[in-house]
TrEMBL record:
InterPro entries: Gate_dom, Spore_IM_YlbJ. The chain crosses the membrane at residues 48-70, 121-142, 148-170, 211-232, 292-317, 329-347, 371-390. The keyword Transmembrane helix applies. Residues 43-132, 219-313 form the Nucleoside transporter/FeoB GTPase Gate domain. This is Sporulation integral membrane protein YlbJ. Keywords: Membrane, Transmembrane, Transmembrane helix. The keyword Membrane applies. It comes from the Bacteria.
Length: 398
Protein backbone atom coordinates (compact mmCIF):
# COMPACT_ATOMS: atom_id res chain seq x y z
CA UNK A 1 0.00 0.00 0.00
CA UNK A 2 1.32 3.44 -0.93
CA UNK A 3 2.31 6.08 1.60
CA UNK A 4 -0.63 8.25 0.55
CA UNK A 5 -3.06 5.43 1.37
CA UNK A 6 -1.38 4.87 4.75
CA UNK A 7 -1.84 8.56 5.48
CA UNK A 8 -5.52 8.34 4.56
CA UNK A 9 -5.96 5.32 6.82
CA UNK A 10 -4.18 7.04 9.71
CA UNK A 11 -6.24 10.22 9.41
CA UNK A 12 -9.51 8.30 9.14
CA UNK A 13 -8.69 6.15 12.18
CA UNK A 14 -7.63 9.23 14.17
CA UNK A 15 -10.91 11.02 13.48
CA UNK A 16 -12.92 7.89 14.31
CA UNK A 17 -11.03 7.50 17.57
CA UNK A 18 -11.68 11.14 18.41
CA UNK A 19 -15.40 10.77 17.68
CA UNK A 20 -15.63 7.59 19.78
CA UNK A 21 -13.80 9.30 22.63
CA UNK A 22 -16.27 12.18 22.63
CA UNK A 23 -19.09 9.65 23.04
CA UNK A 24 -17.25 7.68 25.74
CA UNK A 25 -16.26 10.74 27.77
CA UNK A 26 -19.01 13.32 27.13
CA UNK A 27 -18.68 15.14 30.46
CA UNK A 28 -14.90 15.42 30.31
CA UNK A 29 -15.09 16.62 26.71
CA UNK A 30 -17.68 19.23 27.63
CA UNK A 31 -15.58 20.51 30.54
CA UNK A 32 -12.49 20.75 28.31
CA UNK A 33 -14.51 22.53 25.64
CA UNK A 34 -15.79 25.05 28.17
CA UNK A 35 -12.24 25.69 29.41
CA UNK A 36 -11.11 26.41 25.88
CA UNK A 37 -14.13 28.63 25.26
CA UNK A 38 -13.44 30.54 28.49
CA UNK A 39 -9.85 31.24 27.44
CA UNK A 40 -10.98 32.51 24.04
CA UNK A 41 -13.96 34.53 25.32
CA UNK A 42 -12.24 36.12 28.32
CA UNK A 43 -8.70 36.68 27.06
CA UNK A 44 -7.83 35.81 23.45
CA UNK A 45 -10.63 37.66 21.65
CA UNK A 46 -10.45 41.00 23.53
CA UNK A 47 -6.64 41.01 23.57
CA UNK A 48 -6.13 40.30 19.85
CA UNK A 49 -9.10 42.19 18.41
CA UNK A 50 -7.71 45.76 18.74
CA UNK A 51 -4.40 44.77 17.15
CA UNK A 52 -6.10 43.01 14.25
CA UNK A 53 -8.41 45.95 13.50
CA UNK A 54 -5.69 48.58 13.82
CA UNK A 55 -3.30 46.58 11.63
CA UNK A 56 -5.96 46.29 8.90
CA UNK A 57 -6.53 50.06 9.01
CA UNK A 58 -2.79 50.80 8.99
CA UNK A 59 -2.47 48.76 5.80
CA UNK A 60 -5.55 50.35 4.23
CA UNK A 61 -4.39 53.93 4.93
CA UNK A 62 -0.86 53.36 3.61
CA UNK A 63 0.94 53.68 6.94
CA UNK A 64 2.63 50.32 6.40
CA UNK A 65 4.26 51.59 3.20
CA UNK A 66 5.41 54.70 5.09
CA UNK A 67 7.00 52.64 7.87
CA UNK A 68 8.35 50.07 5.44
CA UNK A 69 10.36 52.73 3.62
CA UNK A 70 12.27 53.47 6.83
CA UNK A 71 12.57 49.82 7.93
CA UNK A 72 14.00 48.64 4.59
CA UNK A 73 17.68 49.39 5.43
CA UNK A 74 17.33 47.27 8.59
CA UNK A 75 15.07 44.40 7.56
CA UNK A 76 16.59 43.73 4.13
CA UNK A 77 20.24 43.20 5.15
CA UNK A 78 19.46 41.43 8.44
CA UNK A 79 16.51 39.18 7.53
CA UNK A 80 16.28 39.49 3.73
CA UNK A 81 12.66 40.68 3.87
CA UNK A 82 11.18 44.03 2.79
CA UNK A 83 10.89 46.94 5.20
CA UNK A 84 7.16 46.26 5.61
CA UNK A 85 8.22 43.15 7.52
CA UNK A 86 9.22 45.45 10.38
CA UNK A 87 5.55 46.34 10.83
CA UNK A 88 4.59 42.65 10.95
CA UNK A 89 7.37 41.95 13.44
CA UNK A 90 6.28 44.77 15.77
CA UNK A 91 2.57 43.88 15.62
CA UNK A 92 3.31 40.20 16.09
CA UNK A 93 5.41 40.94 19.17
CA UNK A 94 2.78 43.24 20.68
CA UNK A 95 -0.28 41.07 20.05
CA UNK A 96 1.10 37.50 20.10
CA UNK A 97 0.12 34.37 18.17
CA UNK A 98 -1.01 34.19 15.35
CA UNK A 99 -0.90 37.88 14.38
CA UNK A 100 2.38 37.46 12.50
CA UNK A 101 0.86 34.79 10.25
CA UNK A 102 -2.26 36.86 9.58
CA UNK A 103 -0.34 40.00 8.64
CA UNK A 104 2.21 38.10 6.56
CA UNK A 105 -0.62 36.46 4.60
CA UNK A 106 -2.20 39.88 4.11
CA UNK A 107 1.02 41.38 2.71
CA UNK A 108 1.45 38.36 0.43
CA UNK A 109 -2.09 38.72 -0.93
CA UNK A 110 -1.42 42.41 -1.58
CA UNK A 111 1.73 41.35 -3.51
CA UNK A 112 3.99 43.38 -1.22
CA UNK A 113 6.24 40.38 -0.57
CA UNK A 114 7.13 37.25 -2.52
CA UNK A 115 6.35 33.73 -1.33
CA UNK A 116 9.94 33.08 -0.20
CA UNK A 117 10.06 36.40 1.65
CA UNK A 118 6.74 35.55 3.29
CA UNK A 119 8.12 32.20 4.48
CA UNK A 120 11.12 33.97 5.98
CA UNK A 121 8.95 36.64 7.57
CA UNK A 122 6.32 34.39 9.15
CA UNK A 123 9.06 32.24 10.67
CA UNK A 124 10.18 34.88 13.18
CA UNK A 125 7.21 37.25 13.56
CA UNK A 126 5.02 34.88 15.61
CA UNK A 127 5.64 35.09 19.34
CA UNK A 128 3.96 35.37 22.72
CA UNK A 129 3.09 38.91 23.75
CA UNK A 130 4.77 40.49 26.82
CA UNK A 131 1.53 40.54 28.82
CA UNK A 132 1.24 36.76 28.46
CA UNK A 133 4.89 36.16 29.37
CA UNK A 134 4.93 38.41 32.44
CA UNK A 135 1.29 38.27 33.54
CA UNK A 136 0.10 34.73 32.81
CA UNK A 137 3.37 32.75 33.00
CA UNK A 138 5.77 34.54 35.36
CA UNK A 139 3.22 35.91 37.82
CA UNK A 140 0.16 33.72 37.21
CA UNK A 141 1.95 30.33 37.25
CA UNK A 142 5.28 30.93 39.00
CA UNK A 143 4.30 33.94 41.19
CA UNK A 144 7.68 35.42 40.33
CA UNK A 145 7.84 38.59 38.19
CA UNK A 146 11.64 38.39 38.06
CA UNK A 147 11.35 35.20 36.02
CA UNK A 148 9.50 37.14 33.30
CA UNK A 149 12.71 38.99 32.40
CA UNK A 150 14.52 35.71 31.72
CA UNK A 151 11.63 34.26 29.71
CA UNK A 152 11.21 37.43 27.64
CA UNK A 153 14.94 37.70 26.84
CA UNK A 154 15.11 34.05 25.75
CA UNK A 155 11.83 34.19 23.83
CA UNK A 156 12.48 37.34 21.81
CA UNK A 157 16.19 36.59 21.50
CA UNK A 158 15.19 33.27 19.96
CA UNK A 159 12.93 35.16 17.54
CA UNK A 160 15.85 37.27 16.32
CA UNK A 161 18.13 34.23 15.93
CA UNK A 162 15.45 32.40 13.94
CA UNK A 163 15.05 35.44 11.69
CA UNK A 164 18.79 35.54 11.04
CA UNK A 165 18.91 31.82 10.31
CA UNK A 166 15.86 31.96 8.03
CA UNK A 167 17.51 34.63 5.88
CA UNK A 168 19.31 31.68 4.25
CA UNK A 169 15.98 30.04 3.42
CA UNK A 170 15.52 30.15 -0.35
CA UNK A 171 18.96 31.73 -0.75
CA UNK A 172 18.84 31.00 -4.48
CA UNK A 173 15.62 32.98 -4.79
CA UNK A 174 16.06 35.90 -7.17
CA UNK A 175 15.37 39.24 -5.53
CA UNK A 176 13.01 41.21 -7.71
CA UNK A 177 13.07 44.36 -5.63
CA UNK A 178 15.73 46.99 -5.71
CA UNK A 179 17.54 47.28 -2.41
CA UNK A 180 17.43 50.61 -0.69
CA UNK A 181 20.79 51.72 0.64
CA UNK A 182 19.70 54.75 2.61
CA UNK A 183 16.72 56.15 4.45
CA UNK A 184 14.21 57.96 2.21
CA UNK A 185 13.30 61.57 2.83
CA UNK A 186 10.10 62.37 4.73
CA UNK A 187 8.58 63.72 1.51
CA UNK A 188 9.28 60.49 -0.38
CA UNK A 189 7.87 58.34 2.42
CA UNK A 190 4.74 60.47 2.69
CA UNK A 191 4.28 60.28 -1.09
CA UNK A 192 4.30 56.48 -0.82
CA UNK A 193 1.68 56.67 1.94
CA UNK A 194 -0.50 59.00 -0.16
CA UNK A 195 -0.29 56.85 -3.28
CA UNK A 196 -1.11 53.74 -1.29
CA UNK A 197 -4.21 55.36 0.21
CA UNK A 198 -5.45 56.53 -3.20
CA UNK A 199 -5.15 53.03 -4.65
CA UNK A 200 -7.67 51.78 -2.09
CA UNK A 201 -10.90 53.41 -3.28
CA UNK A 202 -13.13 52.11 -0.48
CA UNK A 203 -14.82 54.75 1.72
CA UNK A 204 -13.56 55.09 5.30
CA UNK A 205 -16.72 53.50 6.69
CA UNK A 206 -16.30 50.45 4.48
CA UNK A 207 -12.63 50.13 5.41
CA UNK A 208 -13.56 50.13 9.09
CA UNK A 209 -16.33 47.60 8.53
CA UNK A 210 -14.04 45.32 6.52
CA UNK A 211 -11.40 45.55 9.26
CA UNK A 212 -13.91 44.50 11.93
CA UNK A 213 -15.35 41.67 9.86
CA UNK A 214 -11.96 40.30 8.81
CA UNK A 215 -10.68 40.43 12.40
CA UNK A 216 -13.77 38.76 13.85
CA UNK A 217 -13.68 35.96 11.23
CA UNK A 218 -10.03 35.24 12.05
CA UNK A 219 -10.72 35.26 15.79
CA UNK A 220 -13.67 32.90 15.39
CA UNK A 221 -11.36 30.48 13.60
CA UNK A 222 -8.78 30.84 16.39
CA UNK A 223 -11.47 30.13 18.97
CA UNK A 224 -12.42 26.93 17.19
CA UNK A 225 -8.83 25.68 17.29
CA UNK A 226 -8.43 26.56 20.97
CA UNK A 227 -11.56 24.58 21.87
CA UNK A 228 -10.61 21.67 19.61
CA UNK A 229 -7.12 21.26 21.06
CA UNK A 230 -8.40 21.69 24.59
CA UNK A 231 -10.70 18.72 24.03
CA UNK A 232 -7.99 16.78 22.18
CA UNK A 233 -5.56 17.24 25.06
CA UNK A 234 -8.16 15.98 27.53
CA UNK A 235 -9.05 12.96 25.39
CA UNK A 236 -5.41 11.95 24.94
CA UNK A 237 -4.97 12.08 28.69
CA UNK A 238 -8.11 10.00 29.34
CA UNK A 239 -6.99 7.38 26.81
CA UNK A 240 -3.53 7.32 28.47
CA UNK A 241 -1.93 8.18 25.15
CA UNK A 242 -0.21 11.15 26.79
CA UNK A 243 1.44 8.81 29.29
CA UNK A 244 2.67 6.51 26.52
CA UNK A 245 4.11 9.40 24.55
CA UNK A 246 5.72 10.66 27.76
CA UNK A 247 7.87 7.52 27.85
CA UNK A 248 9.67 8.70 24.70
CA UNK A 249 10.24 12.14 26.20
CA UNK A 250 11.54 10.51 29.39
CA UNK A 251 14.46 9.03 27.45
CA UNK A 252 15.41 12.46 26.10
CA UNK A 253 15.15 13.99 29.57
CA UNK A 254 17.45 11.32 30.99
CA UNK A 255 20.05 12.10 28.31
CA UNK A 256 20.04 15.80 29.26
CA UNK A 257 19.84 14.92 32.98
CA UNK A 258 16.50 16.64 33.53
CA UNK A 259 13.89 15.33 35.99
CA UNK A 260 11.67 12.75 34.31
CA UNK A 261 8.63 14.38 35.97
CA UNK A 262 8.70 16.87 33.09
CA UNK A 263 7.63 14.21 30.56
CA UNK A 264 3.83 14.59 30.88
CA UNK A 265 3.92 18.42 31.07
CA UNK A 266 6.08 18.51 27.92
CA UNK A 267 3.65 16.31 25.98
CA UNK A 268 0.74 18.49 27.11
CA UNK A 269 2.72 21.62 26.22
CA UNK A 270 3.49 20.34 22.74
CA UNK A 271 -0.26 20.42 22.10
CA UNK A 272 -1.15 23.55 24.12
CA UNK A 273 1.64 25.71 25.53
CA UNK A 274 -0.43 27.36 28.29
CA UNK A 275 -1.48 24.06 29.85
CA UNK A 276 2.03 22.67 29.53
CA UNK A 277 3.57 25.74 31.18
CA UNK A 278 1.11 25.48 34.05
CA UNK A 279 1.97 21.80 34.60
CA UNK A 280 5.70 22.58 34.50
CA UNK A 281 5.26 25.28 37.18
CA UNK A 282 3.73 22.70 39.54
CA UNK A 283 6.34 20.00 38.87
CA UNK A 284 8.13 18.91 42.05
CA UNK A 285 11.71 17.74 42.28
CA UNK A 286 13.01 20.29 39.76
CA UNK A 287 14.92 23.54 40.14
CA UNK A 288 13.49 26.85 38.94
CA UNK A 289 16.18 27.02 36.26
CA UNK A 290 15.15 23.64 34.88
CA UNK A 291 11.49 24.71 34.89
CA UNK A 292 12.39 27.95 33.07
CA UNK A 293 14.31 26.05 30.38
CA UNK A 294 11.38 23.72 29.69
CA UNK A 295 8.84 26.57 29.69
CA UNK A 296 11.02 28.60 27.31
CA UNK A 297 11.04 25.71 24.87
CA UNK A 298 7.26 25.22 25.08
CA UNK A 299 6.51 28.93 24.63
CA UNK A 300 8.82 29.19 21.61
CA UNK A 301 7.50 25.99 20.03
CA UNK A 302 4.00 27.46 20.60
CA UNK A 303 2.17 24.13 20.65
CA UNK A 304 0.26 22.42 17.88
CA UNK A 305 -2.79 24.52 18.73
CA UNK A 306 -1.14 27.85 17.84
CA UNK A 307 0.63 26.25 14.89
CA UNK A 308 -2.68 24.95 13.54
CA UNK A 309 -4.10 28.48 13.79
CA UNK A 310 -1.21 29.81 11.72
CA UNK A 311 -1.46 26.90 9.28
CA UNK A 312 -5.14 27.59 8.60
CA UNK A 313 -4.31 31.23 7.82
CA UNK A 314 -1.40 30.30 5.55
CA UNK A 315 -3.49 27.65 3.76
CA UNK A 316 -5.20 30.38 1.72
CA UNK A 317 -1.81 31.41 0.29
CA UNK A 318 1.19 29.77 -1.38
CA UNK A 319 3.19 30.13 1.85
CA UNK A 320 4.30 26.68 2.97
CA UNK A 321 3.80 25.48 6.54
CA UNK A 322 6.92 23.29 6.64
CA UNK A 323 9.44 26.18 7.02
CA UNK A 324 7.19 27.68 9.70
CA UNK A 325 7.16 24.42 11.67
CA UNK A 326 10.92 24.04 11.30
CA UNK A 327 11.34 27.58 12.62
CA UNK A 328 9.21 26.77 15.68
CA UNK A 329 11.44 23.81 16.54
CA UNK A 330 14.53 25.93 15.94
CA UNK A 331 13.22 28.76 18.13
CA UNK A 332 12.39 26.28 20.90
CA UNK A 333 16.00 25.07 20.91
CA UNK A 334 17.34 28.64 20.79
CA UNK A 335 15.08 29.84 23.62
CA UNK A 336 15.91 26.88 25.86
CA UNK A 337 19.64 27.32 25.21
CA UNK A 338 19.51 31.06 25.91
CA UNK A 339 17.65 30.41 29.16
CA UNK A 340 20.32 27.93 30.23
CA UNK A 341 23.12 30.46 29.68
CA UNK A 342 21.50 33.69 30.91
CA UNK A 343 19.39 32.43 33.82
CA UNK A 344 22.03 32.91 36.53
CA UNK A 345 22.90 36.33 35.10
CA UNK A 346 19.42 37.78 34.51
CA UNK A 347 17.34 36.17 37.24
CA UNK A 348 17.41 38.38 40.33
CA UNK A 349 14.95 36.97 42.89
CA UNK A 350 15.69 39.75 45.36
CA UNK A 351 13.73 42.09 43.06
CA UNK A 352 10.62 40.50 44.57
CA UNK A 353 11.61 41.65 48.03
CA UNK A 354 11.84 45.30 47.09
CA UNK A 355 8.94 47.69 47.23
CA UNK A 356 9.13 48.38 43.52
CA UNK A 357 8.90 44.66 42.72
CA UNK A 358 5.83 44.32 44.90
CA UNK A 359 4.21 47.34 43.28
CA UNK A 360 4.95 45.94 39.83
CA UNK A 361 3.38 42.61 40.74
CA UNK A 362 0.33 44.28 42.27
CA UNK A 363 -0.10 46.48 39.20
CA UNK A 364 0.02 43.51 36.83
CA UNK A 365 -2.37 41.53 39.02
CA UNK A 366 -4.82 44.47 39.11
CA UNK A 367 -4.52 44.95 35.35
CA UNK A 368 -5.18 41.26 34.69
CA UNK A 369 -8.20 41.25 37.02
CA UNK A 370 -9.62 44.25 35.15
CA UNK A 371 -8.90 42.60 31.83
CA UNK A 372 -10.72 39.42 32.83
CA UNK A 373 -13.67 41.55 34.00
CA UNK A 374 -14.05 43.64 30.84
CA UNK A 375 -12.76 41.10 28.31
CA UNK A 376 -16.04 39.16 27.94
CA UNK A 377 -17.97 42.43 27.53
CA UNK A 378 -15.65 43.51 24.71
CA UNK A 379 -16.10 40.13 23.04
CA UNK A 380 -19.90 40.26 23.24
CA UNK A 381 -20.17 43.86 22.00
CA UNK A 382 -17.80 43.24 19.10
CA UNK A 383 -19.66 40.13 17.97
CA UNK A 384 -22.93 42.08 18.01
CA UNK A 385 -21.36 44.88 15.95
CA UNK A 386 -20.00 42.35 13.47
CA UNK A 387 -23.45 40.77 13.10
CA UNK A 388 -25.00 44.20 12.46
CA UNK A 389 -22.38 45.02 9.80
CA UNK A 390 -22.86 41.64 8.12
CA UNK A 391 -26.65 42.06 8.13
CA UNK A 392 -26.48 45.57 6.68
CA UNK A 393 -24.24 44.42 3.84
CA UNK A 394 -26.57 41.55 3.03
CA UNK A 395 -29.43 44.03 2.68
CA UNK A 396 -27.28 46.41 0.58
CA UNK A 397 -26.17 43.66 -1.81
CA UNK A 398 -29.71 42.47 -2.51
Amino acid sequence: MSLSKWNSLFLACSVLLMAASLMLFPQHSLDASLRGLSIWWDVVFPSLLPFFIISELLIAFGVVSFLGAYMEPLMRPLFRVPGTGGFVWAMGLASGYPAGAKLTARLWKDKRITTIEAERLVAFTNSSNPLFLFGAIAIGFFHDPALGIVLAFAHYGGNVLVGIMMRFHGRHHIQTRQKKKSFPSLKEAFHMLHEERLQDTRPIGQKLGDAVQSSVQTLLMIGGFIILFSVLNEVLSLLHITQWLALIVTLALMIFQFPTEFSVPIISGLFEMTLGSQLVSTTTGATLKEQAIIVSFLLAFAGFSAQAQAASILAATDIRFKPFFFARVMQGVFAATLTFFVFDWLYQPRVQETASGGESQNFLATFLDGFYTWGPIVTLVTLLISIVIWHQRLITNR
